[in-house]
Write a structure and sequence with these properties.
With about 500 residues, this protein is an alpha/beta fold. About 40% of the residues lie in helices and about 15% in strands. The protein folds into two domains: about 260 residues, Aldehyde Dehydrogenase, Chain A, domain 1, CATH 3.40.605; about 180 residues, 3-Layer(aba) Sandwich (Aldehyde Dehydrogenase, Chain A, domain 2), CATH 3.40.309. Strands 14-15-16-13-12-17-18 form a seven-stranded mixed β-sheet, with helices on both faces. A six-stranded mixed β-sheet has the order 9-8-7-10-11-19, with helices on both faces. A three-stranded mixed β-sheet has the order 1-5-4, with helices on one face. Helix 3 crosses helix 4, helix 4 packs parallel to helix 6 and helix 10 packs across helix 11. The protein binds nicotinamide-adenine-dinucleotide (NAD).
Length: about 500
């Protein structure tokens, strides 16, 4: 299948920002139909059902993926159980070798994986190529290093694998999300059943080909595709010893209830409404760049999107003015184009949800500013980066996660007020603090209810640094030594 191109619409500001189209036209082989990956091979779903996966930038079908049901999930769990004892007994340094091989193959096939993620998930190629795929490889490298050093990772000697793990991941950054779960689980000697989102399964199925190439023993990793029903069947399976979920808080609560029935250990990475706090003494241009990249470039799909900008009152006018100038240079369009900043939304339903939130915000009191009035591509679902001003901390737009590139701007007068506002949502995922004073940044960070706090930067990830949330943003961590903890138990 050849690369598809959606023409970048003309931007309505000066010619300085007009770039020639630069779509990545690398041809990628995509089968017209995929089965599940169970026991080391691709198999047809039990009831033969498939669902179409579409290119969100063009609304054109790319391929069909299997729609898993209870019997497919059960088959995958049985394969994982059969492989568990042998994989757990495999010498840790041998397990490490498999992880190193997977990491190297991801690096070798990085461009192909990036293009595939971009076509299937709509991630701008710059982000999939420069961030998601390299980080996915890094998670396998990092955890390979731990495989034979696990007893040094914990204060207690002889950690043991938990057993068969179910893992469910969201639509955004599919390969990275898969790597964050699979790499530590495998390093610790567990076997897995992974369910990618029905909106972005193709790059995860390509990972299955890599697992075959590196001759990972059959059954150690199984991939069952499908939608919510497939996820429900996996979460409810009594053969799981642990379940790890990344996605919305609403679904996460269902997973937790199902795990309470089965007794599986549960780890949850959920939604957020993360604040960026900008003090008057900060470098404002840097803060604006952090805010823009932190929420707009990820189309609000990243868990850590900094969707609230809390600005010290005297600099509000300057910040909004500079933000509008910066926003006018953001390019929305074909995600395969190397100059594109913001790609399409995952689906039409996402656009409807965003529109409903924006209407509620405007009905309340909010002023809405969009990037530019230039036309968006005709096919696909698109949302221009949008700024909301004149909003109050109690507004729905400031308290609930809006699944799109929407930034709400509020003001504070004192550090205490900034902290109170930042903590005033049910979530606790990430936060940013922008100030010239190191001690102030540290003090504020310590008082924020968030799993990750960045100072004078935003949205920076590393396999060695744990991420995760508190309150309604989740339970447990991924990445770093902490990311191994859900996958071990002690005698
Ligand atoms: P989602 O909850 O709709 O779906 C996530 C996964 O769960 C998908 O694979 C889906 O098929 C599956 N699923 C849906 N309903 C299910 C059910 N009833 N039982 C079992 N599985 C079910 O989330 P999404 O729209 O794919 O992703 C967006 C959300 O994910 C946002 O809220 C975002 O903040 C969050 N997110 C969090 C992190 C993090 O690390 N905290 C990272 C990325 C995304």
């Amino acid at each position: 299948m050849t690369a598809q191109s959606t023409r970048q619409p003309e931007l309505s500001f000066g010619s300085a920002w007009r770039y020639a189209d630069a779509p990545d036209s690398t041809p990628i082989e995509i089968a017209h139909r995929y089965g599940h990956f169970i026991d080391g091979e691709f198999v047809e779903p039990a009831d033969g059902k498939h669902i179409a996966t579409i290119n969100p930038a063009t609304d054109e079908p790319i391929s069909d993926i299997a729609a898993g049901d209870e019997s497919d999930v059960d088959r995958a769990v049985r394969a994982a159980r059969a492989a568990q004892a042998k994989w757990a007994r495999t010498k840790p340094r041998e397990r490490a070798k498999y992880l190193f091989r997977i990491a190297r193959r991801i690096q070798e096939r990085a461009h192909e994986l990036a293009v595939l993620e971009t076509k299937d998930a709509g991630t701008p190629i710059r982000e999939s190529r420069d961030l998601h795929i390299p980080l996915a490889a890094q998670h396998f490298f990092y955890n390979a290093g731990w495989a034979d050093k696990l007893r040094y990772a914990f204060a207690v000697a002889s950690p043991r694998p938990v057993g068969v793990c179910g893992q469910i991941i969201p639509a955004g950054a599919p390969l990275l999300m898969a790597a964050r779960k699979l790499a530590p689980a495998l390093a610790c000697g567990n076997t897995c059943i992974l369910k990618p989102s029905e909106l972005s399964s193709l790059v995860v199925l390509r990972l299955a080909e890599i697992l075959q190439e590196v001759e990972l023993p059959p059954g150690v990793v199984n991939i069952v595709t499908g939608g919510a029903k497939t996820g429900e069947a996996l979460a409810a399976h009594t053969g799981l010893r642990a379940i790890s979920f990344t996605g919305s808080t609403e679904t996460g609560k269902r997973i937790a209830r199902a795990a309470a029935e089965t007794g599986a250990r549960v780890t949850l990475q959920l939604s957020g409404k993360s604040p960026n706090i900008v003090f008057a003494d900060a470098s404002l241009d840097q803060a604006i760049e952090g805010a823009v990249q932190g929420v707009f470039f990820s189309r609000g799909l990243s868990c850590c999107a900094g969707a609230r900008l809390l600005v010290e009152e005297p600099i509000l006018g300057e910040i909004v003015r500079k933000l509008k100038i910066r926003m006018a240079t953001i390019r929305v369009g074909d995600p395969l184009d190397k100059n594109t900043d913001v790609g399409p939304l995952a689906c039409k339903q996402q656009l409807d949800t965003i529109k409903a939130y924006l209407k509620t915000a405007c009905d309340a009191s909010a002023q809405l500013h969009e990037t530019s009035a230039s036309p968006l591509p005709k096919k696909g679902s698109w949302c221009r980066p949008t700024l909301l001003t004149d909003v109050h901390p109690s507004d729905v737009a400031c308290r609930e996660e809006i699944p799109g590139p929407v930034l709400a701007v509020m003001t504070f007068r004192t550090p205490d007020e900034a902290i109170a506002q930042a903590n005033d949502t049910p979530f606790g995922l990430a936060a940013g603090v922008w100030t010239d004073k190191g001690s102030k940044g540290r003090e504020i960070a310590n008082r924020l209810k968030a799993g990750v706090v960045w100072c004078n930067t935003y949205h920076k990830f590393d396999a060695a640094s744990p991420v995760g949330g508190c309150r309604e943003s989740g339970l447990g961590r991924e990445g770093g030594i902490q990311g191994l903890r859900p996958y071990v138990e002690f005698s």
